Amino acid sequence: MIAAVAVSVLLPIEAGAAGSLSDVFKGSSDKGSPKHGKSSSQPSAKHASAKHTGPAKRDEAPKSQNVRLAALGPANLNLNLGSSTCEPAKFRIAVDVGHTAESEGASSARNVPEFAFNLRLARQIEEKLKAEGFAQTRLLVTDGKAKPSLFKRVAVANDWHANLFLSIHHDSVPDKLLEDWEFDGKKSHFSDRFGGYSVFVSHDNADFKTSLAFAELVAKEMKAKGLQYAQQYTMPIMGHYQHPLLNKETGVYSYDQLVVLRKTEMPAVLLEAGSIINRDEELKMQSPERRDIVSSAVLAAAKTFCGLPEPFLGPL
C-alpha cells in the first residue's frame, strides 16, 4: 500500500472530477488507481493524493486534528456475524479495482503498473464470489485521474447501496526507500527490504465496527494460507506513511484519511494484496497460484462474515 497501496486514494488532484458514472461498473472490464513508489504515469510524488506507503497516501482527505491511538494486539470483536447479517444471494459486494487506466498507481520492480495487478486480482475475486453464491458481487472499475476517481467510485458504491466495499491494491514503498536497477534494458526501481499484505480500515467510516470485523476476517484468512503481513507501516522510516497497527497478529491497520474508506456509507476495507516493488514477491503476485490464494482468502472471509459453514468433506 505504500507507493502502490494508497492508489485508490491519493493521486494529484485534477480540476474537474465530473465524468459519467454510467460506465463505472463494468461486468468484468478494466481499470483502477495509484501508490507510493514511482509511477509509470506520475512523477515521484505519487501519493500526495493517491496511494500509500502502506497505503501511502491513497485517497487522502485532510488529516484529522485528532490522532487516534490504536491498541496493539488482537482486537476483541464480539460481533454477531451470523446468517442474519447477510443473505449471500442478495448481499451486494463492491469489489473496487484500485486506481485507473489514466492513473495507474505504483510501478512494479519490472515496470508493470499496479492497476494491471489490481484488475486481474479483483476480477478473480469477483468471479470466485459469484461462483460461490454471492451473485450480487460487482466489479467497480473507475476511469479518470486519481483524486476525482476516488469520489467517483465512492459515489457509485453509495448510489448502488452496496453492503460491503472492498478495494484491491498492491503495495510499494516511499520513493526514498527505492533502489535503482535495470530490467529488460530499462531503468527500474525496487525495494526487496519489505513485502507482505496489509489490510486497512478507517475510524471515520460510517460503520467502523463492521469494517474492522471484515478486515480481521480477511487478514486471518491471508495468514492462515501462509502469507505474512507487511510490518513496515509501524516504522518511523515510513514517515507520513506510518499507520497505527490495530492487530499485531494479523496485520490490520487504520488509515483514517483514505477517501474510499471514510466516505463510503457501508463497511469498507482496503486490501494491499502484496508488494510489487519487491522483486521476488512481484513474481509471486503475477502468478495464477497467488491470485487463487488471495481470492480464496477473501471468499472464505465473506462466507464467515455471512455465517456460511464450510463444506463437510467427510473423513480423510
Describe the model:
The chain contains six helices and nine strands; from the N terminus they run E-H-E-H-E-E-E-E-H-E-E-H-E-H-H. With 316 residues, it is of the alpha/beta class. The strands form two sheets. A seven-stranded mixed β-sheet has the order 2-1-3-9-6-8-7, sandwiched between helices. A two-stranded antiparallel ribbon has the order 4-5. Strand 4 and strand 5 (186-190) form a beta hairpin. The protein is globular.
CATH class membership: Alpha Beta
- The CATH superfamily is Zn-dependent exopeptidases
Widest sheet: strand ordering:
2-1-3-9-6-8-7
Find the count of extended strands (DSSP E, 2+ residues): 9
Count of the separate structural domains:
1
**H/E order of the elements?**
EHEHEEEEHEEHEHH
Tell me about the largest β-sheet. Answer: 7 strands, mixed
Count of DSSP H/I helices: 6
Uncertain runs: 1-34, 38-84, 312-316
Oligomeric category = single chain
CATH architecture: 3-Layer(aba) Sandwich
The gyration radius over C-alpha positions equals: 18 Å
Helix/strand/pairing class, anyone? alpha/beta
Shape: globular
**CATH topology descriptor:** Aminopeptidase
Percent range of helical residues: 25-40%
Question: Secondary-structure blueprint of this entry?
Answer:
Layout: E1 93-97, H1 114-131, E2 138-140, H2 146-160, E3 164-171, E4 179-183, E5 186-190, E6 198-201, H3 208-224, E7 245-247, E8 252-254, H4 259-262, E9 268-275, H5 279-285, H6 288-305
Parallel strand pairs: 1-2, 1-3, 3-9, 6-8
Antiparallel strand pairs: 4-5, 6-9, 7-8
